[in-house]
Description:
By secondary structure, the protein is an alpha+beta fold. It has 15 helices and 15 strands.
Amino acid sequence: MKYLFSSIFLAVVLLTNSGQLSAQEKNVPETVAESTDFKTLSRAIKVAGLAETLNATGPFTLFAPTDKAFASLPDGLLEALLRPENQASLRKILAHHVINGQLTAVEVMRGIKSGSGSMSVTSLEGADLTLSELEDEVFAEDGRGRKAKIKSTDLKASNGMIHIIDRVLLPGSVNVAKLLTSGERAGEVAPAPPPPPAPSLFEAPPRAKPAPVETVEIPKATAPPPPPPPAASVFTPQAKASVAPNSSAGHLGISKLSQLVSVLEATELLSTFSSGGQFTTFAPVNEAFDDLPAGSNARMDNILRYHLILAPISAAALTTALEKGNGFYQLTAMNGQTIIATLKSGKIQLMDSYGNTANLIQTDVPAGKGVMHLIDGVLLPR
């Protein structure tokens, strides 16, 4: 922790010199409001109606996401949260960053040490945060395994303490995907009603305005098709020998997906994923499994089914759908739950209902009659 604590004094000095008050005459909301790093957080606190709570005597500990942290949320999420109808969800998210009681950096480290590497604290939202140390850095982790690095500590206020973090934490009580798919997005109107049936041949039917989110029409699942020869699957060793050396699957081989194959075998789903059916598989690479939250193994079957779409969708088709859907596309997974596809800096990103995101890092890998896209994160169903 040398790096963290040696930077505390410097961070406070820099904040003070840049006009960001650390003096204790300002309470938590006032200190946030006067900082140039927390413009979004300050606005969100007011919109959520949380200022009254944080103006109280306290003391409180606030893990404060910077403007940059809010900007890294999936496109459209911040806009949705700031709408009046989503005030309750925004309040839950912000309350998930607040601890009832003052917790200094020294006390955090003492708790982590006594807890053999981690300590749990209960947020005002009601769910626990886990504080832990890894390679001389301290992280705050929500119940879904999303980790935020504590960048600076002990910014004092008259009724508490503020620690600066680089990511917005999202509690499990908020369905992030639903926020993105319900209601009208800013600047758009609600879809028009469908045109009347059977228009005249000489009349152009009225055009309905497009919905902000387009849903993939997935046919109802039928019995899985009979499996093709083993060589057709990228999940079996035979596939590596059967593809041309310069093909996508040939380059892929099995090395990047060995962890996925292991968990598939443990859940008896390997035959489904390797059947060569007309599926779209979002395949997490090995490193993606490193950040799974505790307890994931018990529901791995459902997690894996959440990565399978019962229709082949190429990267080009998905990109076209995203462009038509104003940057959003709703997919229905094999387990019946929703995945939201978005465009982030020109790249396709997937988001589960908890706000966890995964980027497509390799696309259109042949998989029998279907297609597979490699992703850098594991999506978690509700």
